[in-house]
Amino acid sequence: xLTHRLDDLVAGMADSIxxxxxxxxxxxxKPHDLHDSLRHNTSxxxxxxxxxxxxxLSGPAATxxxxxxxxxxxxxxxxxxxxxxxxxxxxxxxxxxxxxxxAQSALLRAAGRVWGVSESYSTAVTAAYRDALAQxxxxxxxxxxxxxxxxxxxxxxxxxTVWEIARMLGFPFEGTFLLVTAESHSAGEPPLPGLDxxxxxxxxxFAWRAEPGHEIGVLSLPARGAAGPxxxxxxxxxxxxxxxxxxxxxxxxxxxxxxxxxxxLESLPAGTSGVRQLEDxxxxxxxxxxxxxxxxAVNRILGGVLSLPENDRTTLLATARAWLEAHGSAAEAxxxxxxxxxxxRYRMRRLEEYLRGSxxxxxxxAELAMAINAVGAFPVLLDPHTPxxxxxx
Length: 393
What we know:
By secondary structure, the protein is α+β, with helices and mostly antiparallel strands. The chain has 16 helices and 6 strands.
């Protein structure tokens, strides 16, 4: 009887699995662990088939959980069960042949029960494996979320803490990074669905932290990777307002980059969908540090223009920007605006009426450039009644 040959059965099954499945030779599955699992399952199977005891599925369930934590792929775990049951069936056949025709007939009648046990074990293994894997993924997400929080809160620059966080996230300490903050509209729904898959396709590593009302993500670009494809991926996934920081090169710069991303998000009109990335310029930093002071300066410089009807205001501001970018050339500005250069001159004379002096004065031109660039970077400054302090500032 096979019951008296349990040790030989377990040894034969283990050899079959180790020889047939490479991962069992190279993974963290210890021989005694495999033998204990096979012994528990085989003795339970024999007790069920010979004595009619209820089938004990605690063994395969424990194996499924253990193999998930060991990182053994589920198909290989199921293949191990297939090999062990094939070996078990072969031994049943040999025993029946030795025992004679009556035993062979009895085995044929019991074949359905034997392979039913195999199916039950496989089902129990699969369910336990997936439950353990899901729990492991949740725990991993929590750990990565906590690490992102540590980056955002800002350990001391250059400290070993940041290096350790980088190691645990699988990021380099120095590289090319973007920080993304995306507005959430409903609990449980990611604000950037499908972005992780898009990032994986372009070799961009990522880590996220969910906070009330928004999610924060740190994206690590591949070596010499450009930000363009990443921004395209973010735009394709965006369903609401999304702010993106300028690219930065060290993980200990994450707190400063978060500030840029938050201000970029808040500069988009509420209730809209879009992606905004601020440039890392002295003017941008100055405006972010005190938006209210900037508002007062813009109102002093452009207050008369901002009070005009929207069409007139938009036309004069666009003309001023083109004129500044053309270094004061009406002809160059006209080409950019697709109009006659005399039209540019007329509009600039109109604009001059609202300024503190003539555009022949370099100080007046400098003030105009500052105000035009400020409202370009922060359109919220165009509306004197809209609060300029970001909600996350």
